[in-house]
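Students often ask why inverse folding is considered easier than folding. One informal answer: many sequences map to the same fold, so there is more than one right answer. In these notes we will look at a single instance of the problem. The structure comes first.
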């Protein structure tokens, strides 16, 4: 049987196999790209047809250039698998495979990845990658002698690039204008953009291997102009939300009761807050960085100490509890607990834990506090696509809710129901943190800051999940909830006017405010502090002294 199959093997010149693979990649692995092309070039049939010809030339030039003997099959198969996987996520969720998306994939854990590797994904990979790869393996590739092969390949590549260049030149005005208007267009070109993003990430990661962390805020110290040293310890708990978008917060005007518990607390809600990024790998280190979104880069974050380090320099006790996929190196130099590794059966299943695990040891921790302290609780929050796993049955209020990671099996309303249930559960977690601080008002001056790392798309304009490049990310991914609660005694100790703070909460804010606001709240003076980015500075008499010192320091 095997001999018979071998005798039936078709033969094909290497350049023809390369061109056929190029055509397959372009026209079968680019559903999202061609859908956008048809929409953005509507009524411009010639430009659309020419685009297909030009890109076929570019793809063919790429594959023919890789058609060396012993290399052609592995390279083409690698392209097939890469393109097929990218096509699945782009077509299913509307995401773009850029460098930061590659970073997210590299830094994820097995539990998170398992939600995306579904049976439907497996069937897709078999149909669009494995079977065509078997065909490539089966085909007998015919190669010319080396010099003739180089000559023919050079001729084919030159002709293909000429076709690509001609199309680009003849339609340059149309394509340039359309690209400027729709920046999400060409980043969906598969596998060109995903492979380029992977190479870019690898080069960046390689350059970051030997980064030495520079100190920041080594001059930090707690200055207490109002109450001196005879006071209770100040404790701020920072709850870092995951994938919570402002649009679905009742506190911001959402029509559903997703914040029933927080609505009963004396909180201030900042209704117009922008994230630093659209994925945890960017937003989390940026939130705690001194740089702010305009000047932030991953390399700079790795090379500079962050908020937690500055607080430590000021003599403030700092700690990080994580129930997500890690702290992204923000807590490398302070005590931390990775609760998601605990496998506590009360809260955890299959490598993921309900956020109640963040509350489990909080009472004991607060009872042991005898000095100023900042604790970060990093939630699993609303991390998708398995929203239904983010809340216990008691918080399954909005039904029917999507009970699968396969969004195609659910209506948009079901997906939103599951997402809102997870928001409802987060509301409970935040409120419970506040209640625990209120219960210790005789011993501690407590404050709580909640800020989500990024938002989430729930089907708007065909987009799901998060991670869209920031330049064209929708508000659903960049507008995040930001909540502050402070105990009356805390307000008194720093002279905070809560009414003033509430009055300023409607103005635009961002992740840039977190670094300086926490320093201000904890009365930590340092040259790294910028009062203009401290949301409390304008409403706090105690901070007015720090504000003047900050301005003098920068002057």
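Output (designed amino acids):
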């Amino acid at each position: 049987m095997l001999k018979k199959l071998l005798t039936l093997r078709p033969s094909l010149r290497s350049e023809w196999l390369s061109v056929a693979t190029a055509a397959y990649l372009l026209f079968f692995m680019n559903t999202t790209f061609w859908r956008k092309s048809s929409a953005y070039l509507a009524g411009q049939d010639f430009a659309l047809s020419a685009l297909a010809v030009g890109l076929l030339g570019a793809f063919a030039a790429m594959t023919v250039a890789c058609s060396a003997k012993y290399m052609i099959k592995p390279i083409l198969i690698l392209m097939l698998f890469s393109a097929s996987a990218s096509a699945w996520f782009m077509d299913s969720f509307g995401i773009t495979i850029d460098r930061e998306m590659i970073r997210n994939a590299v830094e994820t854990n097995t539990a998170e990845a398992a939600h995306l590797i579904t049976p439907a994904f497996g069937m897709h990979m078999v149909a669009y990658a494995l079977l065509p790869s078997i065909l490539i393996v089966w085909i007998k590739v015919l190669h010319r002698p080396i010099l003739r092969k180089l000559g023919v390949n050079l001729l084919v590549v030159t002709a293909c690039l000429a076709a690509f260049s001609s199309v680009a030149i003849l339609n340059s005005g149309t394509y340039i204008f359309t690209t400027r208007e729709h920046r999400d267009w060409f980043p969906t070109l598969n596998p060109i953009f995903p492979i380029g993003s992977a190479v870019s990430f690898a080069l960046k990661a390689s350059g970051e291997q030997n980064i030495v962390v520079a100190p920041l805020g080594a001059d930090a110290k707690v200055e207490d102009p109002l109450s001196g040293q005879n006071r209770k310890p100040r404790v701020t708990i920072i709850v870092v939300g995951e994938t919570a978008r402002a649009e679905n917060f009742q506190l911001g005007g959402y029509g559903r009761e997703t914040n029933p518990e927080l609505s009963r607390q004396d909180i201030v809600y900042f209704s117009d807050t922008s994230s630093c990024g659209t994925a945890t790998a960017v937003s989390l280190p940026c939130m705690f960085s001194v740089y702010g979104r305009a000047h932030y880069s991953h390399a700079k974050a790795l090379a500079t100490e962050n908020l937690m380090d500055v607080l430590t320099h000021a003599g403030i006790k700092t700690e990080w509890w994580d129930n997500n996929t890690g702290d992204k190196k923000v807590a490398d130099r302070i005590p931390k607990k990775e609760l998601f590794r605990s496998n506590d059966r009360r809260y955890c299943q299959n490598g993921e834990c309900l956020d109640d695990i963040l509350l489990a040891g909080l009472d004991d921790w607060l009872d042991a506090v005898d000095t100023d302290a900042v604790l970060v609780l990093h939630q699993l929050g609303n991390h998708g696509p398995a929203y239904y796993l983010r809340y216990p049955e008691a918080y399954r209020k909005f039904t029917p809710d999507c009970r699968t990671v396969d969004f195609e099996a659910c209506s948009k309303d079901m997906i939103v129901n599951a997402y809102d249930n997870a928001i409802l559960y987060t509301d409970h977690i935040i409120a419970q943190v506040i209640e625990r601080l209120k219960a210790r008002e005789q011993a501690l001056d407590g404050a709580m800051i909640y800020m989500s790392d990024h938002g989430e798309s729930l089907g708007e304009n065909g987009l799901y999940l998060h991670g869209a490049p920031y330049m064209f990310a929708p508000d659903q991914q960049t507008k995040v909830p930001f909540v502050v609660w402070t105990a009356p005694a805390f307000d008194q100790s720093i002279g905070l006017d809560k009414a003033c703070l509430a009055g300023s909460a409607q103005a635009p804010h961002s992740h840039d405010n977190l670094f300086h606001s926490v320093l201000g709240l904890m009365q930590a003076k340092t040259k790294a502090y910028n009062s203009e980015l401290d949301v409390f500075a304008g409403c706090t008499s105690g901070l007015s002294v720090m504000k003047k010192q900050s301005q003098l320091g920068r002057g």
